[in-house]
Amino acid sequence: MSGAWSWIFAGEEQVWSPGFYRLLGLVPNAAKARYDLLLSLIHPEDRHLMPALADIRQGHVPREVIVRVIRTNGTVRTLSLTMEVRVSAEGRPVALNGTALDVSDREQLARLRQEERRRQSALYLTEHIATFSMGLDRVRDIPFAVAQVHGLPLEEICAEPYLLIVPEEREAFRAAAEEQIERRAFFQGAAHERLANGELWHFRILTMPVWDPDGTYLGRCGLKYPVRNHAPPLVGLHDGLAHSVTGHHLRAARALLDWSMMDLAQASGLSHSTVRRLEEDSEHRGSRSRLHAVEALRRAGVRFIPMDDGTVAVARV
Question: pTM here?
Answer without folding.
Answer: 0.56
